[in-house]
Amino acid sequence: MPIRNTLHPVPFVLLFCGGLGQAQTPTAQTPAAPAQPAAATADWSPAAQKGLDFLLQHQKDGVFMVRMGERQHPDAGFTGLGLAAVQSKPAALRTEAEQKVVQAGMKWLLGNQNPDGSFGERVQNYTTCAVVMALSRWSGPGRDEALAKARDYVLALQRCEANGTAPSDVEYGGIGYGSKGERADLSNLQFAVSALRAAGLPANHEAFTRAVTFLQRTQNLSPQNDLPGKLTVKREDGTTAKLAIGNDGGAVYYPGESPAGYDERPDGALAPRSYGSMTYALLKCYTLCGLPGTDPRVQAAVQWIGANWTVVENPGADPKLGDKARYQGLYYYYLLLAQALDAAGIDRVAASRDGKVTPTDWRAALRTQLESLQRADGGWINDRNGRWYESLDVLCTCYALLALDACK
Q: Angle 170-171-176 (CA atoms, 0-180°, nearest 5)?
């Protein structure tokens, strides 16, 4: 078997990354109304309120903490993600106490932006993008300036001619964790694309044209992927095999690499398997980068989604990896599923099974699934596979609330 990446789309906690809501140009929010009950409405549900109440138990004065053994410390990334999740509740429905949490947390974030526009001290692309998502949902003094600085920081991370990367380089157009020398990947890129759009960058900006080059190299779509014959895949025994590209339209984590496993061809070449979370990341990015629904790359991704439609697991893992692999990154999958389909304007998925196509209301299906998985205390946790820090209930609850937000 090939060596698989051990970090994947979501390196969290000390290595923090957050989820982003649908892209939006910053606009002023409606001021919060004083203490009103969170009635069940089309925009807010009892399940979402229970999740929010759970989250609020894990912050102090709007700041979310990261625990290291017996110690804990305030974290910009978790605070950005948590405040974005809190703000999934419509401002007009928030109680006075909930709004105070938002205001206090945003003030803390603004006071902790680094001089270069980033936030946090490690994996700064993830952290900065999480904060951008919280900032873009908020209106308050200093918001626009902070967004502009964060936007410029994320832009500077992109692999391009300005930092010595040529279009022929595998990582051209991609974005990594933030530090020099750390490679790009689709998860980092999808967070960055979302943040750039949320910070007001138009879809016709050259950064998104460059991003599409990297995106194509993560897609199993041979006519558009130029990597066959250029890369090799390293096996666990140290030997190498030629890289093969599939043609199912799905996506992988990094060009030539997939934690969902590999399929071996008769000639010995290895094709990385497409899987759910990265295919939704691909569709989301293509959409935010301005590709229309008629584009063959977009259509191929949508077809993969229909052929592998499920809200039970993160589909695509090689059965040889075991049952547990089907649930790795499950809540991250839910987040990207909702964001991608919402951004692409897809209301019903053409779910295909046994040759029969069934139009499926994905919003209703995802809401029902998330509500069925919610714990009695209001939180969510991935109890089938804690990989990529989904053993943390605060993280999974943020993902769940943000996924529900895209279901409105």
A: 155
Number of domains making up the chain: 1
Mean pLDDT of the chain: 89
Tell me the whole-structure pTM to 2 decimals: 0.90
Does the residue 115 lie in any domain?
A: yes
What integer pLDDT is reported at residue 16 of this predicted model? 36
Q: How far apart are CA 180 and CA 116, in angstroms?
A: 14
What pLDDT is recorded for position 228?
80
Look up residue 207 and give its two tokens.
Answer: 């950064």
| Residue-range definition of the domain harbouring residue 362 | 46-199+300-406
How far apart are the C-alpha atoms of 318 and 228, rounded to whole Å? 21
DSSP letter, residue 120: S
Give the pLDDT mean for 317-341: 97
Q: Give exposure, 159-197, as e/b (b: 16+ Cβ within 10 Å).
A: bbeeeebeeeebbbbbbbbbeeeebbbbbbbbbbbbbbb
How large is the average pLDDT for residues 368-374?
98
Contact present, 12 and 368 (Cβ < 8 Å): no
- Cβ atoms of 337 and 282 within 8 Å: the answer is no
Assigned domain for 5 exists? no
Task: Compute the Cα dihedral for 392, 394, 397, 401 and give only its sign.
Answer: negative
CB 367, CB 309: distance < 8 Å: no
Closest by Cα among 227, 271, 229, 232 to 250: 271
pLDDT of residue 41: 57
Query: What secondary structure, in 3-state letters, does 301-316 show?
Result: HHHHHHHCCCCCCCCC
Residue 123 lies in a domain: yes
Per residue in 17-33, pLDDT (tens digit) is: 333 333 333 333 333 33
What is the spatial distance between Cα 368 and Cα 383, in angstroms, rounded to a whole number? Answer: 18
* CATH number reported for the structural domain that contains residue 101 in this entry: 1.50.10
Q: Spell out a b/e string for 104-128, using b for 16 or more CB atoms within 10 Å of the CB, else e.
A: bbbbbbbeebbeebbbbeebbbbbb
